[in-house]
Amino acid sequence: MKANPAAAKTAGGKGEKEKSRTNSLIELVVIVLVAVGLALGIQAWIVKPYKIPSGSMEPTLKIGQRVLVDRIGMHLGGPKVGEIAVFHPPRDAEQQVCGPLPHMVTPGGAACDSPEPQESSTNFIKRIVAGPGDTLYIKEGHAYRNGKRESDSYIAPCGGDSECNFPVPIKIPAGHWFMMGDNRGESDDSRFWGPVPTSWIIGQAFATYWPPDRIGIL
């Protein structure tokens, strides 16, 4: 008995279509997995989103605003004075503890010149106002680095708050960076818990992407 060529052809066509669908499905799954992997890799190693939790960086960054943080560029080129950085503060920063021998600094004197050794897992965002080897004092919220006032048109006025004045100069230790919020009268920063080591810096905040009316480069 002869085989029916038409039936054989139809059976083969169905098999090929099913195989094609299976291959397409596998391809789609692979593409999705690769895309997710790339997204996670980019977030983990290159660029990470960050939400502003407080008003300490106003008027530059508002509460709830979202920024992109470059995790690799700062480590290749090193932190720079004037950049906005996301970092881990000292463990007891929120209690305003200063130094390896825990104590509280007193406004009107010297700002904290060294952090406690333990690193917090919390993320902070501030502006770098001084770096390794710099001398620094603060007058009416303005940072004076090596005797020269920073170009600080971005800060909120500090007013007569005592916490805006630390007139006694300090020297920033090697490998450390002094962080201050742009809202100088309402920022918990290095004035109270000291400069942070380079290794605690996560990266530079370089752009804002939300809300839409504040999209731009920092």
CATH superfamily of the largest domain: Umud Fragment, subunit A
With helices defined by DSSP (H or I, 4 residues minimum), what is the helix count?
3
Strands, total number: 12
- Label the CATH architecture of the largest domain: Ribbon
CATH class of the largest domain: Mainly Beta
Mind summarizing the main beta sheet? Answer: 8 strands, antiparallel
Report the sheet-strand fraction: 25-35%
Average pLDDT, to the nearest integer?
A: 85
User: End-to-end span in angstroms?
Assistant: 81 Å
CATH fold type of the largest domain = Umud Fragment, subunit A
Task: Summarize the structure in words.
With 218 residues, the chain is of the alpha+beta class. It folds into 2 domains: 1-45; 49-217, Umud Fragment, subunit A, CATH 2.10.109.10. Helices cover 23% and strands 26% of the residues. It has helices spanning 5-45, 73-77, 190-193, and strands at 47-51, 66-70, 84-87, 124-130, 135-139, 142-145, 148-149, 166-171, 176-180, 196-197, 201-210, 216-217. Strands 1, 2, 3, 4, 9, 10, 11 and 12 form an 8-stranded antiparallel sheet that branches. The protein has a 4-stranded antiparallel sheet with strand order 7-6-5-8, with no helix packed on it. The longest helix has 41 residues, at 5-45. It starts with a helix and ends with a strand. Mean pLDDT is 85; it is low at 33-44.
